[in-house]
Amino acid sequence: MIHNLSIQKSLAGNFLSELRDVNIQKDAMRFRRNLERLSEIIGYEISKTLAYKKINVQTPLGSSEVEVLSEQPVLATILRAGLSMHQGLLNYFDSADSAFISAYRKHSNSEEYDIKVEYLAAPDLTNRIVILSDPMLATGASMVTVYKALLKQGKPSKVYIVSAVASKDAVEYVRQHLPANTEIWTGAIDEELTAHSYIVPGIGDAGDLAFGVKC
What we know:
The chain is α/β, with parallel strands linked by helices. It is built from six helices and twelve strands.
């Protein structure tokens, strides 16, 4: 299932417009906050699809029957660009476990590269709901590689992929290579992907814009 927030009018469009704006991007703190706010919205929308149970809560004047999550998800993110989105999801799923994965492109020449995973910290994922976030879903190769790396910690019952912007090619790649019950949630889907795997119009390098240019 593909959920594209840009199809419907909402505040998500405001945050995404600022993430794309080259002038507003100069404010790294605002860029990080916009990634955080966009993922908060996506987290709230995802929460509507999850299972709930009824509990009784004691108030100062009586008791109230309310519905709460039956199961807390595991929030996984790809370092370093995904940290702001991870925080936004954690703001709403504040009792969730976390998983962190270090993945990068190892180039063999100017256009060809492999995805390398060097670090993984995660709880047991067996039959857990996993929400996996990364701002840019460009080719989809990193997301698929990271999912396969996470399987070392157990097979999730369901996976939600969260991104600020995805390319059309990446959405199709993920659909072909991840389980059928995977859901993709994104702020927008852009049509063009360059030969160097950059989304157009996209955002740019989300990691550099959020945390500074890397060497």
